[in-house]
Design brief:
The complex is a heterodimer of chains A (330) and B (324). Chain A has helices at residues 56-63, 81-87, 90-99, 117-128, 136-146, 163-175, 193-210, 221-227, 245-250, 255-262, 303-307; strands at 3-17, 26-41, 45-49, 71-76, 79-80, 100-103, 181-185, 213-218, 230-235, 238-244, 313-316, 319-321. In chain A, the strands form 2 sheets. In chain A, strands 6-7-8-3-9-10-12-11 form an 8-stranded mixed β-sheet, sandwiched between helices. In chain A, strands 2-1-4-5 form a 4-stranded antiparallel β-sheet. Chain A has 11 helices and 12 strands. In chain A, 32% of the residues lie in helices and 24% in strands. Chain A is α/β, with parallel strands linked by helices. In chain B, the strands form 2 sheets. Chain B has an 8-stranded mixed β-sheet with strand order 6-7-8-3-9-10-12-11, sandwiched between helices. With 324 residues, chain B is of the alpha/beta class. Chain B is globular and about 65 Å long. In chain B, helix 4 (110-122) crosses helix 5 (126-139) and helix 5 crosses helix 7. Chain B contains 13 helices and 12 strands. Classes of the chains: A alpha/beta (330), B alpha/beta (324). The A-B interface holds A 51-52, 162, 164-165, 192-198, 200-201, 219-223, 225-226, 245-246, 249, 259-269, 271-273, 275, 277-278, 281-282 and B 43-44, 157, 159-160, 187-193, 195-196, 214-222, 240-241, 244, 253-255, 257-264, 267-271, 273-274.
Chain lengths: 330, 324
Amino acid sequence: METLLQVKDLVKYYPVYSRGIVTKKVVGNVHAVDHITFEVKKGETVGLVGESGCGKTTTGKLILNLEKATSGSVLFDGFDVFKTFRKGSKEEKSRLRRSMQMVFQNPYASLDPRMTVFDIISEPFKIHRHLPKEEWGEQVYKLLDMVGLEPYHAERYPHEFSGGQRQRICIARAIAVNPKFIVADEPVSSLDVSIRAQILNLMLDLQKRLGISYLYISHDLSSVRQISHRVIVMYLGEIVESAPTEKHFEHPLHPYTRALISAVPIPDPAKKMDIILLPGEVPSPINPPSGCRFHPRCQYATPKCSSEKPALIEIDRDHFVSCHYAFNFL
Amino acid sequence: MSMNLLEIENLKTYFFTEAGVVKALDGVTFNVEKGCTIGLVGESGSGKSVTAQSVLRIVPRPGRIVGGKILFNGEDILAKKESEMRSYRGKKISLIFQDPTSSLNPVFTIGNQLSDIVMQHNRVKKDEAAEAVVKALKLVKLPDPEEALTRYPHQFSGGMKQRICIARALLLNPDLLFADEPTTNLDVTIQAQIIALLVDLQKNIGLTLVMITHDMGIVTQMCKCVVVLYAGKVMEIGSIEKIFEMPHPYTEALLKAVPRLDQTRKLISIPGNIPNLIEPPSGCRFHPRCQYAVERCKEEVPPLQDVGGGHMISCHRWRELNGG
């Protein structure tokens, strides 16, 4: 498969200021995303997993240039994303924006309450002007049909819809410009359990029909397994493990991933859980621990772990882990 | 034969809103055995939280309990005076809320707001109350409990705040504890810590726990017995094993629609949306979304019947679907 997106050495630090109005000094940095590198192939879904504050949403926003990166680069289909948005012509920017879209977590906040569904879905046409006005109507109804809504829904307002239907509207808006790539930031976590499957199935269906690649950001490992081809686990701004889905869930190697997977309750009385309880909590990203960032909570940690940072290495075919002792778990 | 600590019979709690009467609980019946952990499962709007609020008689306006019976230790809670009820809340029946951040008062220290509860109920001096608080904080394994007394809620992380909320709920040694989605706002690894803590507490101090959640995984791993609610009605009551073996059509559909960590499979989604409770569907409330629905399901409300071994089902077609 061809590579669609390449993220290289991406870094985002948020400065922390001292108190005071006149003498504001930078006293530290929140290491939100710290030198991460990965790829997304054409037609593939990459699941980005981690606990709150690990930098997964920031990563999604950096890729789309919704946040300015501190350093690093993102190559999309051969274009340097940051360079295009900094120096490119209007036409180039618009073309790039059209090919990368985002679906947000909360469909209650991401739709304008004063616009009808027709206005919401046709707004991308208005902005990008890639479609003659006569075709807007037809296209909107086609999109509504694709996401499983009825034509008469076009004249309604967002408040008349349930959470699941709103998320369908958000997805219709995102695919209105024929994107090749969509960042889906926790698209189902605010929905009811019985509705989640509808949205996940819709995303899979659209991928099959349109060949869209997804970066699926979530903390819910079960849904990640359903939808992703590849899973990347982040901890405190760094990638700790990256592997094809099957391998990731059947043979996780990093101690953090193993604890994470063991902590998810499985709805089956025949399977009793064997939880690896992690002590403590995620440390502050302002002063992340030295060496391996996971070492204060890791049961296998040795002095080497606190002094030396492990590199993300390919330990098995297509299976990347950043742990000094990953070989022991193979 | 162990005794039922809580018996709820045909409980009806309605909300009288401007748009109409919302029938949040419409004839809910179930029992909670003493020393047991039961799961109260359902989606949003199914009435799980309102059940807990009704038992504590803290249903917010414009809601009102309009019918039914709630027996706690054999005594009718709905017949109690408000002043009597105050001595039940916290002391006999307690509650942990979903969001620990908004259920702690940000302007008082932990010691202050927790010892207030002890002083209010037990009429003790301040230092005695503080002792009780430290004891409760130790019970929930909060690191450095003495130090914690002088700190404010914002100085704790989400997981620690939830531990403090659990300590607060246990301060007066209640017999019955409702935990209303206590891990929904927490990360997976912290959720595992809190679940382990609740299981521990339940065993060690013989607490009766009602775990309210929408996560079938948590229920499976924590509870012996489950009550499944849908749109203000009980669909099914039974042991975990029974429910997985021969589920109600709704429970079955729910289990098929939830992604599982240990397998990749096609998710079968439940069509449609959660019904509006002002004008709920006629007959069985699940019929518009049920793949097995027939004419009869639209017309007749199926009664909650014992189908053997304490397994209660409210469905016209369950027997037929499960081979007679």
